[in-house]
Automatic annotation (TrEMBL):
Annotated GO CC locations: cytoplasm; nucleus; prefoldin complex
A Pfam family that the UniProt record links to this protein: Prefoldin_2
CDD domains, A to Z: Prefoldin_6
SUPFAM superfamilies tied to this protein: Prefoldin
Record-level Gene Ontology MF annotations: Hsp90 protein binding; protein-folding chaperone binding; unfolded protein binding
Record-level GO BP terms: cellular response to gibberellin stimulus; chaperone-mediated protein complex assembly; cortical microtubule organization; mRNA processing; protein folding; protein localization involved in auxin polar transport; response to cold
Annotated keywords: Chaperone, Coiled coil
Taxonomic classification: Eukaryota, Viridiplantae, Streptophyta, Embryophyta, Bryophyta
Cited InterPro entries: PFD_beta-like, Prefoldin
Originating organism: Physcomitrium patens
Coiled coil residues, start to end: 83-117
Family: Belongs to the prefoldin subunit beta family.
Protein name (database record): Prefoldin subunit 6
Length: 130
């Protein structure tokens, strides 16, 4: 019984460490997703502003410390490509997050079952001692 208890406690520690790792990964995912969401909003604003411009308007792109003249159609295309990329990344991150949350729930269930087994063994040992 004592060896089974030690084995279960080691198993519980491993499961808890794995659960911690999943939770950290979920936190990182949320952080990166927030950044993409902000970028998506900024690019949507740029897209709306570009739509307001006349076809012959001058558009400049900031590259390092220099403003470089850019064709309006090229600027619109670049913003649209960026929005498509960010949207795809957000969808990918949502799918990853869903998977990680499912893993987290499964790992929590494992931890709870292991804890219950440990408690049952401890209760049995306490009953024998009396």
């Amino acid at each position: 019984m004592a060896s089974a208890l030690k084995e279960l406690q080691a198993q519980l520690e491993n499961q808890a460490a794995s659960l911690n790792k999943i939770q950290k990964d979920i936190g990182k995912n949320h952080q990166v997703r927030r950044q993409y969401t902000v970028q998506h909003g900024e690019n949507e604003m740029v897209q709306k502003e570009l739509e307001l411009l006349e076809d012959d308007a001058n558009v400049y792109k900031l590259i390092g410390p220099v403003l470089v003249k850019q064709d309006l159609a090229e600027a619109k295309a670049n913003v649209n490509k960026r929005l498509d990329y960010i949207t795809a990344e957000l969808k990918r991150m949502d799918a990853t997050l869903k998977t990680m949350e499912e893993q987290q729930m499964a790992k929590r269930d494992e931890v709870m079952k292991t804890q219950q087994r440990i408690q049952a063994i401890q209760a049995a040992q306490a009953a024998k001692a009396k």
